[in-house]
Amino acid sequence: MHMEQPCIGKHSQIWDNMRKIAVHLKVIDLFTAFQRRDNWKTCFTDGIHLSLEGSKVVVAEILEVLKEAEWKPSLHWKPMPTEFSDDSPYDLVAADGKTTLNPSE
Which domain of life does the protein's organism represent (predicted)? Predict the structure, then answer.
């Protein structure tokens, strides 16, 4: 009795598609990013969950990938077009305490 294995062809196709997609993926090595710190354990509150310090490391790594990526349009905040450039009461207050700073400018 000969049994066919129809899922082998499907799995092969899935792996082939994954290899094609992987060429375009950007990878963030958080392990190495945490290890670059003098005391990497401060990146976690309990060994699993990120602390404020750990969150800053993750954000910095994500922003670096977004800045270097050659995606069009860019997802990094600096080159994004300003959609709402009008002054707003929610803008940051300047040092003089009277005027506001529009962060989109």
Answer: Eukaryota
User: Cα dihedral sign for 81, 62, 15, 19?
Assistant: positive
Q: Does residue 23 fall inside a structural domain?
A: yes
Number of structural domains, the chain?
1
Distance of CA 28 to CAs 66, 81, 95, Å?
A: 11, 26, 37
CA distances from 92 to 7, 32, 73, 82, 88 (A): 58, 35, 27, 16, 9
Q: Around 53, how many Cα atoms within 13 Å sit in the side-chain half-sphere?
A: 15
pLDDT in tens, 30-41: 999 999 999 999
1 is a domain residue: no
pLDDT digits (tens, 9 = 90+) for 44-93: 999 899 999 999 999 999 888 888 877 777 666 666 666 666 666 667 77
Taken as a whole, the chain contains a residue count of 105
Rounded CA-CA distance 101/96 in Å is 11
